[in-house]
Predict the 3D structure of the following.
Amino acid sequence: MFDTENTHEPHPADDGLAPPGPAVIQEPGGPRPRPPGLEIRFVTRMSRRLASDVTAHARRDGLTAGAWVRRALLDRIGMRSPVDARSGRPVHRPPEEIAAISAAIRELAAVNRAVSASDAAAARAGLDEARRLLIPLVIARAAG
């Protein structure tokens, strides 16, 4: 159930726009520090089927299950909260991956122009180049 001590009107900092507080320094043998931003842990029980479906939807959307549930709740109650909508740690990609993805996106833009101009050969060449750039990244991610 709800922790009635923590039910309160939203604080201005709860909108996620305020910078997080100071970092918590963990002393040896001390309690594990909480990440900044989310102060309340809300635990609920659910069936295995519901948990499985939530997890599948979260993975499909590229989110953690907790972030997916928080976003569903935000949508349901009509609230905006960037701090609640965020999901886990950001994915850091190596510079070479970013360069390859950027090049593939540029190629896909060229494919779009070629299709609009009815230039099938240029469209095909652009698709081949985009595949050449993206397939190694996908294979490396799957193997990693």
User: Anything to note?
Assistant: The CA atoms of residues 107 and 129 lie 7 Å apart.
